[in-house]
Amino acid sequence: MTRPTKAAGTTGGAFLRGAAAFQTLTLFFQAVTAGLLLNSSQAYLVHDIGSKVMYAAAMLYVLATVLAWRRGGGSPRPVLFSTGLLVLASAQVALGIAHVPSVHVPLGVVMFALSTLALVRSLPPLARPAH
Q: Are 52 and 45 in contact (CB under 8 A)?
């Protein structure tokens, strides 16, 4: 069996980074539209649509971590982390539907922080300058 080429590994890493970035951006968008809910009744529809996109982004991130793990082996920790974020997204949607902002809003902040952490961890290490 041959080893995967470097280009294939790079593509998998790019997909993982893209999925993490997409998830983080959708969570940020949700925070912005949640703030708009304070001033506009039309923001509810945008926030509602955004919740569906955010949930799809969470599922995409799970898929990306599974594919990266299966392709490159290694630790399944990112898969567990992404699955945990999907569980939090499910709770977030349920809390939003139930109109429980006292838990919905702080959970959204936690999810954004965790997604940002996942995005940063998916980035390649910075090259150190030669001395």
A: no
